[in-house]
Structure formats: structure tokens, C-alpha cells
Amino acid sequence: MNRLLPIVLVALIAVAGGGYWYSQSTNTTVPLANVELVSSDGAEASSSEVVEMVMGAEDAPITLIEYASFTCPHCASFHENVLKQLKTDYVDTGKVKFVFRDVYFDRFGLWASMVARCGGQERFFGIADLLMKSQSEWSRAGDPVAIADALRKTGRLAGLEDDQLQACLQDEDKAKALIAWYQKNASADDISGTPTLIINGEKHSNMSYKDLKAILDSKL
Predict the structure, then answer these.
(1) pLDDT digits over 174-183, tens only?
(2) Would the keyword Chaperone be found if you checked this record's keyword annotation (predicted)?
(3) Neighbours of 120 (CB within 10 A)
(4) If you count Cβ atoms within 10 Å of the first and of the last residue's Cβ in the chain, which end, N or C, has fewer?
(5) Range of the domain at 175
(6) How far apart are CA 179 and CA 118, in angstroms?
């Protein structure tokens, strides 16, 4: 399980062809909780602007929330080895409502989230799957500009247009809203690492599909 860093760069940066914006004027390292999230027009960033990404029936007897980072190798493994089977056996059969909640260890995880969300709810999980599968490639592409280019390439593979991707990655207010949303959720559920699973309100760490299946079956 990846542990959340106690401090992160204030510069959780959105990309615009190699140009950057910063949430403060200096690139210092401070506790994320102390960052004042303010939009470019001076308004405070609102987590209510963020759409919850959900698969499955709204009235499913089990709600499973996964807290994950697009730069977390354990999360990529969970998506490949657990989530696919979970979707087939429980989500598609109406037993589980699955909710994905982003966690940001770094700016690259934020950028990846912005690309995944660029296609809206209908495309989110498909793009997220591509990002998790190719995580070791785009996350190690090189400097920040190279990583941004690799993320845009993944977005294009998912059918997104260049102008659409650029607009998403330049959306400063959306980035700040995502950070505020992440802070609110992580604080409420006491998230200290990824992947973390919340199953009908009970918190669990990363696990195999076999162990997850046993927990789910006990609740049905």
C-alpha cells in the first residue's frame, strides 16, 4: 500500500504545453491542509463541482469506495487483478455500487485524473483503465513536459481530441476543485494510503480478490 505523504508540493500543477500555473507564488513545500484553494477569479474552490465516478446500480446492497492514485503501482495492480473480476461478478450483477475516488500524491496523479475526467462519466473508467495499464510508461516518461505529453497520448488513444485534452489540462479551477474534493473525502474517511477500500462504511486496506470476495459475500 502506498502511504500518503505528510507534505506535498503546493505546486499541484496543471499543464499547458509546458507552461504551468501555481496555487501560490512560490514553489515551496507545505502541509496540503494549509493550502488556500482559491480560483483565478478569487473565489474559493468548491469540491461540489466534482462529479463522483460510479459504476453499478444505485440501489445495490453494497457500496464499495476505492481510494486510489493514478501514480500508485499497488492501485494499478488492484485495477488489473481485482477490479475487473469485481465488475464482472458483483458490479454488473447489481450487487455492488463501485465508487472511484482520486488521491493525489503528486502533480502527475492530478494531471492523470484530469485526463481521465476529460471524457466525462461515460468514458472515465475506460480512460482510467488505460492510464492504470500504462502507468509504468507515462509516469516514467521523463520531465514534467514529457509526462504531460504521454498523458495526452493516452487521452488520444481513448478518443479524446487534442483541443479537448489541452482545455482539460489547463483548467485551473477544476484542478483546485479536485484537490479540495480529495482533501474533504480523505479527511472524512481517514485515508492514509492507497488503495483503501470502504465497504458499506467499513475501511479495508489492499487485498486479493479472494479476500475481497469473502467480505462481499458475507454482506449479501
Answers:
(1) 888 898 899 8
(2) no
(3) 10
(4) C
(5) 2-218
(6) 16
